[in-house]
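Re: the 210-residue chain
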Amino acid sequence: MGKSYERITGRLRTFIEEQRVFFTATAPLSASGTVNLSPKGLTGSFAVLDERTVAYLDFAGSHSETIAHLRENGRITLMWCAFTGPPTVVRVHGRGEPVFRDDPRFPELLARFPAIDHTRHGLRAIIVVTAEEIRDSCGFAVPFMTYEGDRPLHGSRFERETDETLDEYFHKKEYSARSMDGLPGLPLPLPPLPAAAATPGGDDAERPAR
């Protein structure tokens, strides 16, 4: 039987932080708009900021659907499910905001992710989510699966990019500045990383799990 929670604490927080992958779901206000569902991984790219707030690093990609939907309406759902141990699914329904590189809050937020070298992944924004509804449920139909390790491909692809070449990459992608439904997405030109944020956090392959 599922339960609702007021805060992300104790067993609930431990479960969320131990998962190697989670999923984000957003949608535009238009009834004919494109619903977006994305998997998120990379050890160290997720953080619980407080009992009602979580955040994750938004890295380079060819689309900006989540950013566009959050800029339009702020609605987002995050989901974690257990692939090992007791069958559990946790959802956080809330309001999300993309915090971009030129936002004064960016360096302080980025400091909450010390276990990943963010300079290797083409960091675009930090997504901050304030929980409005926190629920768990059974995961009886979720299969057992074994974690073998983070894929190195994303880091090896984007670690060679500078701020300038990363901006060029996003300009070339059809759905970076605009979503698939034409909503404003990633603001371009891409602001450079703040000096305080340009120092690597360390080798994520050698850091403990989030």
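The chain has one domain: 3-143+154-193.
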